Amino acid sequence: MNYSRFINAVSAARKPSPIRVLTAILAKSPPSMISLASGAPNPKLFPFAEATIKLRDGSKLILDEERMNVALQYGATQGQADLVNWLKDLQNILHKPPSAGMKPEAGGLDLIVTTGSQDGLSKSFESLIHAGDNVVVECPTYAGTLSALRPIGCNLLAVATDHNGMIPDSLEEIMSRWKPEDAKHSECRIPKLVYTIPNGVNPTGASLTLDRKQAIYKIAQKYDLLIMEDDPYYFLQFNKPVPSFLSLDTDGRVLRFDSFSKVLSSGGRSIQGREELLQWHYADDEYLTYEHSSDDEIVEPKEDEEEPPPPEVSEAIERLEVMVGDLLHQWGMDGFKEHIKQVVHFYQSRKDIMVNAAKKWLSGLAEWDEPVAGMFLWLKLKGINDTKKLIEEKALAKEVLLVPGCAFMPDPDAPCSYVRASYSLASDEQIDQLQSTVLHIHHQLRPGFGDSFARSSSRMIKIISVKVPLMPVNTLVILATGDLRVAIDERIQR
Ligand SMILES: Cc1ncc(COP(=O)(O)O)c(C=O)c1O
């Protein structure tokens, strides 16, 4: 494939930074190498010496002085070599990409660790899309992606979805506004990429079938589209996984975004794709240094802290990579799989509780498809034209928070009768209470149903303060914040 058509003018102008090239050479050099080239500070002056992290299984993860120095120091742009290699092995086991054996230099696959699937998505969008481009997304789709795309000034083309995710006929119908040859003309506004969430769509909980993936891949081949496969719920699938787009990718048109956010902790994710498409990540020192620089603001963990640190703090842990890399090596592939089993079991049982509560309270008043992955139930409230007002006024007054469906729509102003309910953190009682409150509000908004509902809640459902039971990391000794990464992440609403 010729990737030059996909990369926008700003990204095409990026050149590899000489300093970053040397950093990569140094990372692969023997310890005997004397380097006066690096602009890295001397870690002996960093006040953090060692850390012991208690894991939930009772074992410990120890960052000795040497590992701590690595954790605090500037590192290779691609990510810690150990972690990168571990992730490549994992990807090869899970996805068996057809091009796995090819060297990156020969156009094969490569992998980069980013500070978020969101981070990787935003950078990819900013590297690939020009203002005015047509971009294909599914409808509904992840609100964070919409937030990243809208400021670029692109035109969002919405593909219809159902309980099996994106509908290939709808994609074909959108693409048929152009001829496949249009892809050869740079001035033509034919879409260059399609963005999709293949498993446990946020917000619908739907997953693509293999047939659909194959049909979508064929359409992508016909119109020369890149497929951006955003798969943070891969490890939260309740049924046997079907092959990913990456597994089907014989051409090199898939950029795959993985995330550990839902299974280890936020802050560690990877992008996999053709080397040319990841070049922007290696290119410009100015552009990149924010990834590994820090303003060294220290957040002291409080004793008996009940709440997990706010997202911007956990996001900013400078060397979460070292912690995650060491944990994965300590666990090995089998330990990781064992952990994933527990995660799947947990979310599946939460999903059952959510669906049972919906059946109990909302049968006849709402419609839903049972989620097959992920952490969300997508409810269509019958007879309610737009849920925004319902959430902002009625639900809030009842101390219940749900996300109105319009947050996931390419056109946010169109009325939407859906709401998204998350089953990841709420207790059984809270889920039950939440659904019954929806019923209550529904009755209020639909005259004629009467209001027989007697229970009312006096307590806000404190979703954010509930402890996440599955994260293996129990005690964080050092939390560093303040780098520019936070500014980037904050720009993007979750
Ligand atoms: C579909 C989708 N993509 C990306 C993300 C962001 O993932 P990360 O935490 O790895 O940035 C989310 C998070 O909720 C998501 O639902």
UniProtKB/TrEMBL annotation:
A GO MF label: kynurenine-oxoglutarate transaminase activity
Biological process terms in GO annotation: alpha-amino acid metabolic process
Keywords: Aminotransferase, Pyridoxal phosphate, Transferase
Statement: the UniProt record of this protein carries the keyword Transmembrane helix: no
Segment forming the signal sequence: none
Sequence ranges assigned to domain Aminotransferase class I/classII large in this UniProt record: 54-268
Pfam families per UniProt: Aminotran_1_2 (PF00155)
Membrane-spanning ranges: none
Cofactor: pyridoxal 5'-phosphate
PANTHER family recorded: AMINOTRANSFERASE (PTHR42790), KYNURENINE_ALPHA-AMINOADIPATE AMINOTRANSFERASE, MITOCHONDRIAL (PTHR42790:SF19)
Entry protein name: Aminotransferase class I/classII large domain-containing protein
Native species: Paralvinella palmiformis
